[in-house]
Specification:
Shape of chain A: globular
Largest sheet of chain A: 6 strands, mixed
CATH topology of chain A: 60s Ribosomal Protein L30, Chain: A
Strand order of the largest sheet of chain A: 1-2-3-6-4-5
CATH class of chain A: Alpha Beta
Oligomer: homotrimer
Helix content of chain A: 25-40%
Mean pLDDT of chain A: 98
Distance between the termini of chain A: 14 Å
Number of helices of chain A: 2
């Protein structure tokens, strides 16, 4: 099976495709980064939509999602954006936990594994 | 490869099957939730046994497990239940780290990737 | 698809191979453990090189990496070792977050999924 990488930097690739399985990096909000965890989630999910499209996949094919919140108190804000974004009947396996992230400005980080 | 989902909610599916690979959500203890991290672990592993059975898999086929403890001081309590549950000679790749979980009542969350 | 395990203990296997996909455990530094997060990273990446070699893989084929830092302040120390180790043009999807680890002596833990 081939390995294909997109948005390849010296530290990480944002998208790695192995056969029929697609891995994204942990995605954080783009600059200028809002202080609002819901706004960050919205930006992250838009990036994930784009990445999956580049891989020939989409959000109906997400297998597993890992969500890190810099403070678990953002849980409801996250879900206020996550729940309507998830395709009805095709929700991924998900885990959502608290971890501080690379920079204090980041409140949310999301990584997915998808089929294509 | 087909994608099959079971226990599908609006936020997450507890079980997602992609070809020969099975992904569970991060599983936490069921209500009424014990305060005891060992008891929570026991309940979680019973749920994982059931989910894997539904996927045509079982604990001898777990590839990777991620364990989050709300406090790393639960490490020995977790292992007191985990170690005897793991099939001799067929232990998964495992990582166990501390992260606060979605609700304060949850002390342990476990997610697995398995073959089937 | 077959499942093959190496460095199998009663709690975890350090390496699990499922068809063309390789899963490592969360790897921490070996004893005697340095206090320096950069030194721990160097030791961990050497172990990952060895594990991947045993699986018929190598660091050019890493699909996804999860990095846990016991304190996110180790971020730059981690990257000072990580960045030169990563093969140019073949960087993995990566997430790096803060979580306390199993023992206070551990500052860094890294887990990878690779193709082979």
């Amino acid at each position: 099976m081939t390995v294909e990488r997109k948005h390849v930097g010296p530290r990480l690739s944002e998208l790695v495709i192995h056969g029929d399985t697609v891995y994204t990096a942990g995605i954080v909000a783009r600059d200028p980064v809002s202080d609002d965890p819901a706004a960050q989630t919205r930006d992250i999910l838009a990036q994930i939509d784009s990445l999956l499209a580049e891989a020939g996949s989409d959000k109906t094919k997400i297998l597993s999602a890992t969500i890190w919140l810099a403070d678990i108190s953002y849980y409801d804000a996250l879900n206020s954006v996550w729940d309507p974004w998830v395709p009805k009947g095709q929700s991924p396996a998900r885990a959502c936990v608290e971890s501080k992230l690379a920079r204090p400005k980041y409140k949310v980080e999301i990584r997915v594994i998808a089929a294509r």
